[in-house]
Specification:
It is built from five helices and no strands. The chain has about 120 residues and is an all-alpha fold. Helix 2 packs parallel to helix 5. The relative contact order is 0.18.
């Protein structure tokens, strides 16, 4: 639970600073550092929590509903579907980067130290 929360905070912070690349960077690092089975799925869930929190914060601004309705209209999908797709996109980005990070971490840990 602590790993989920820490990863979600890192993802939200980096997304705020760097845009969507922040989630990829945070997931890559988390995938490398987390040494547990199923870490990519934990990172993907963290991405959903992080981006869900960012969307919730943005919704208090007052213009979020108009923007979401406008974008959903252009894409011809309902607003809830747009929000779900957005969260799933972040989860897919995070899962993919965490898988790569996990493999990097395994290779680094299994490489014998040079003499």
């Amino acid at each position: 639970m602590l790993a989920l929360l820490a990863t979600a905070i890192a993802m939200a912070s980096l997304t705020w600073l760097l845009g969507w690349w922040g989630i990829v960077i945070a997931a890559l690092v988390a995938g490398t550092l987390l040494r547990r089975r199923g870490a990519p799925w934990l990172v993907a869930l963290s991405a959903i929590v992080a981006w869900g929190a960012l969307l919730a914060v943005d919704s208090f601004g007052g213009r979020f509903a108009a923007l979401a309705t406008s974008i959903a209209g252009v894409m011809r999908v309902p607003v809830p579907a747009l929000l779900i797709v957005t969260l799933l996109f972040g989860a897919l980005l995070a899962w993919s980067a965490a898988v790569v990070g996990d493999e990097i971490g395994r290779r680094v840990r299994s490489t014998p130290p040079s003499a």
